[in-house]
């Protein structure tokens, strides 16, 4: 069995500054050993530990989709020691990736269902992975209507802007983009907080699952909206963050009651979370 | 299985012979306490000890494990690539471990050896280690092993169980590895019926001397969120200073941190003991901390041992009753009392 603490060596292929505050950058990584890519078989919703020798590791959701071959993609918010160092690395430099880790959105369970994706801010990363994966011709027929509500503080803070525009133009996905506020005359989408826009667009709960990822305040106010629309807690899915080290359920810090967020999560239904202590 | 009697004066000879084929660790007196150390001489093993201050978990899960090394030298073809550090994980014998501490290894196995992932260092050391236990003829006042499903002469996690008699030791093989250790021991003779009866009496006497302070069975039935919200946590946490002594000494506390350490242009990635008593243990990069308050951290330690572990693995509790945390807590927090509160069932009059 492979040593689960040993990262795969990867090379940084490209670094994209995503947001106008320059605090979010997307890293495209390529495996140094081509065999490692096959070993790193993942599903949308999983995460990995990004490893920088001499700095440490940081758990980050996988933003690329398994249908995109030849690279992995991570969007990293600059927060602490490792992420600050990462932001200052250059294409061509070598780092590590350990994973894939954790569970994923319930893709089998959601087959044949409509999927409503609700995202806020930089939590959109594994949601991007999910959208790309569902829109892939191999998977699109497995899911019904796809509705996306995605919001950020202002237009400059939205991730993956080119893709958002491309998805807007498609007829097999319904996009509701929103910003908290803007004075940009070019902005032709919604203005308002994610919960309010969700309420206004009122995606049907009929035969549908909702995947909700965003800052705690957004989740707090979106959950009652979804309940009013008729989504039962079993069909509201979210992904949690925690301080993590091992990522494999051994180091002991990321538990909520009996569940390790790194291994038993990060994806939980609201029904499951209701059975656990409120400590996250 | 094979049971032999070894006279006291022959024991160093036996340990010395085993040292020829394996690294032998045993309790050694250091200052006013004891600690498991690699023996360089068989007579350094001091089996008159009560127990070591630091639990022998350090033999399997060292406080600092150097996992990987790497070069940070510019232009080095291996710059920034982590490589496993080779370890001497050959045959080892732990001589004189208390049955409770051996039981702790079994409880922690569930965390480190899973269907999905295996911790290579824990597993290899466990596989390479033969445990020769020393039954507790005279348990301490802080011992409560029989309350948590083990006991002073519990064989279940040992390869060999030793019982001390006036003239010598009875060594009983429990596993094949133990049998192999005793099979060709010229220092011993097959244990006679009277010696076996004497050993049996010692064990029974020790077990009788231990009060059963609580029964862990009700833990399974109690709802997790109900215990989590219990009012007694406020009282339990009141005196705690979050020093982490309890988790440091505990044989079943396994939590660890991973950190990089750089010297000049060479670096290592270390796995280091950590503690749920420290706020940094759960601090997010954003500044949010799900266990920011002392109460939350104290509750986590007891809930993990007596509820989360029990529910998650259908095993445990994750406590062996060694009493170290009771003995060394600077503010006298007593896990026996807390476990009593957690397991108490109250039938209210209707």
Give start-end ranges of low-pLDDT stretches of chain B. none
Please report the number of helical segments of chain B: 13
Instruction: Provide the domain count of chain A.
Output: 2
**What is the total tally of β strands of chain B?**
12
Which chains share the greatest interface?
A-B, 47 and 49 residues
Strand-pairing-aware structural class of chain B: alpha+beta
- Secondary-structure content class of chain A: alpha/beta
Broad shape of chain B: globular
Name the CATH homologous superfamily of the largest domain in chain A. Answer: Nucleotide-binding domain of ferredoxin-NADP reductase (FNR) module
Number of strand elements of chain A: 15
Q: Name the helix and strand elements of chain A from N-terminus to C-terminus, one letter apiece.
A: EEHEEEHEEHHEHEEHEHEEEEH
Strand order of the largest sheet of chain B: 3-2-6-7-8-9-1-10
Short description:
The complex is a heterodimer of chains A (280) and B (350). Chain A has 280 residues and is of the alpha/beta class.
Describe the secondary-structure layout.
The complex is a heterodimer of chains A (280) and B (350).
Chain A: E1 8-17, E2 24-31, H1 34-39, E3 47-52, E4 56-61, E5 72-77, H2 81-87, E6 94-101, E7 114-120, H3 125-135, H4 137-140, E8 146-152, H5 161-169, E9 174-179, E10 190-191, H6 194-201, E11 208-213, H7 216-229, E12 236-239, E13 255-256, E14 259-260, E15 267-269, H8 270-273
Parallel strand pairs in A: 7-8, 7-11, 8-9, 9-10, 11-12
Antiparallel strand pairs in A: 1-2, 1-6, 2-5, 3-4, 3-6, 12-15, 13-14
Chain B: E1 3-7, H1 11-19, E2 23-30, E3 33-38, H2 57-60, E4 64-71, E5 83-84, E6 92-97, H3 99-112, H4 120-128, E7 129-134, E8 160-164, E9 168-173, H5 176-183, E10 189-190, H6 193-209, H7 218-221, H8 224-228, H9 232-237, H10 245-249, E11 256-263, E12 266-273, H11 294-313, H12 324-328, H13 335-343
Parallel strand pairs in B: 2-6, 6-7, 7-8
Antiparallel strand pairs in B: 1-9, 1-10, 2-3, 4-5, 4-12, 8-9, 11-12
